[in-house]
Amino acid sequence: MKTAFDRRGLVTGVLGTVGLVVTGCGFKPLYGTPENGAGASLEMASVRVDPIPDRIGQILRNELTDRLTAGVGPQPTRYRLFVEIEESTAPLQIQTTDTITRYNFTLSASFQLLDSTTGNVVYDDSARAVGSYDVVESEFATLVAEQETGREAARDLSSSIAALLALYFSRDTG
To answer: Bridge partners of 127?
Structure first.
């Protein structure tokens, strides 16, 4: 019969072993600070996101700015991020009466990271986010669902772009 003390000792031993394995393999936190060996956070915070047209672009820009400066706050601008987005919808669920009851909403972005002093492209990539919404009898409810799906896709897209930039900076900073 195991006691609470035995389980606590087992958990402590497993966590200690995992900690030794993780530190031994060269793991370093992606969003850490230079003091703990990861400078990606400061590099990301030095990115200024250029304005992106349309409401969904504004949402994406705000989400990107929040994600890139999280934890360290805005830093002096070293990079500019230029983002182009494209929205599309496609029927997802079609009834036997040819009535569409669900759509897929796709938000695609191609982006370029530019050196703010030289204007040279230092990194470019693309990302996309997909969401879906139901079509109901109320046009207003369908419109609200479509807009909320767009907002959620912008949040997902900003997360993907921030992750790609974090990977770029973590490779670049060693």
So the answer is: 109
In the chain, the DSSP E strands lie at 47-49, 79-94, 100-115, 121-134
Look up residue 130 and give its two tokens: 């997909």
Q: What's the rounded Cα separation, in Å, for the pair 112 and 2? A: 58
Angle between helices 54-68 and 139-172 (to 10 degrees): 40
pTM of the model: 0.77
Per-residue pLDDT, 43? 87
Tokens matching residue 79? 């990079």
pLDDT in tens, 56-87: 999 999 999 999 998 788 889 999 999 999 99
Interstrand relation of 79-94 and 121-134 (parallel, antiparallel or unpaired): unpaired
Q: What are phi and psi of 63, to 5 degrees?
A: -65, -45
Please name the residue that has the structure tokens 């035995």. Answer: 6
Interatomic CA distance for residues 34 and 75, integer angstroms: 14
Q: What Cα–Cα distance (Å) separates residue 114 from each residue in 44, 52, 71, 110?
A: 12, 15, 23, 13
